[in-house]
């Protein structure tokens, strides 16, 4: 029997993640039934769960991937830029609804909350490191602890995500992000 190449396995895993992301974003965690996951991925239950232990493992893999992607942008360009990208290209962020599901699962599932905490810590760590670099180069205000600024930006991010995921108007959000950015920078 021929073995499946590592490239083919990785491609199949990518197909599953991409289809599942759309399914979770559209239907939420509970509404993303196995049948809907099969339809969204165009793969069988067996093919999906060959790569992921169960639906929760698939959901957590998506959450991790999205957190890592956001952490990469945050590390390079800052968390405010992540938010600007969300406004400019909302179709690239179809995981926004999934982020709301993450919050719901954190509240209702202690095991999921523990698994998620480690990944959230990664995003917070890269944001903190970037802000500390900005403080050292003189472009970040020094009168507020860096950890408080991270919490502040995280709260703004959560509010933006909620607003986008619920379909509220985004007309004034560019100006809001300008205000947020100005509030963390020095007056120089």
From TrEMBL:
<protein>
    <submittedName>
        <fullName>TetR/AcrR family transcriptional regulator</fullName>
    </submittedName>
</protein>
<feature type="domain" description="HTH tetR-type">
    <location>
        <begin position="10"/>
        <end position="70"/>
    </location>
</feature>
<dbReference type="InterPro" id="IPR001647">
    <property type="entry name" value="HTH_TetR"/>
</dbReference>
<dbReference type="InterPro" id="IPR023772">
    <property type="entry name" value="DNA-bd_HTH_TetR-type_CS"/>
</dbReference>
<keyword id="KW-0238">DNA-binding</keyword>
<dbReference type="InterPro" id="IPR036271">
    <property type="entry name" value="Tet_transcr_reg_TetR-rel_C_sf"/>
</dbReference>
<dbReference type="InterPro" id="IPR009057">
    <property type="entry name" value="Homeodomain-like_sf"/>
</dbReference>
<dbReference type="InterPro" id="IPR050109">
    <property type="entry name" value="HTH-type_TetR-like_transc_reg"/>
</dbReference>
<dbReference type="Pfam" id="PF00440">
    <property type="entry name" value="TetR_N"/>
</dbReference>
<feature type="DNA-binding region" description="H-T-H motif">
    <location>
        <begin position="33"/>
        <end position="52"/>
    </location>
</feature>
């Amino acid at each position: 029997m021929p073995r499946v190449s590592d490239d083919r396995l990785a491609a199949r895993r990518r197909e599953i993640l991409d289809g599942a992301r759309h399914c979770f974003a559209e239907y939420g965690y509970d509404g993303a039934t196995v049948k809907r996951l099969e339809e969204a991925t165009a793969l069988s239950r067996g093919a999906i769960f060959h790569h992921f232990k169960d639906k929760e493992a698939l959901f957590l893999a998506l959450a991790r991937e999205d957190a890592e992607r956001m952490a990469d942008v945050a590390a390079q360009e800052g968390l405010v830029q992540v938010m600007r990208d969300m406004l400019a290209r909302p179709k690239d962020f179809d995981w926004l609804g999934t982020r709301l599901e993450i919050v719901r699962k954190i509240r209702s599932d202690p095991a999921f909350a523990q698994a998620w905490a480690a990944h959230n810590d990664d995003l917070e760590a890269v944001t903190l490191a970037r802000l500390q670099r900005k403080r050292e180069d003189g472009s970040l205000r020094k009168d507020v602890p860096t950890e408080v600024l991270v919490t502040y930006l995280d709260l703004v991010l959560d509010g933006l995500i909620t607003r986008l995921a619920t379909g509220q108007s985004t007309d004034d959000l560019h100006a809001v992000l300008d205000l947020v950015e100005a509030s963390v920078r020095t007056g120089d």
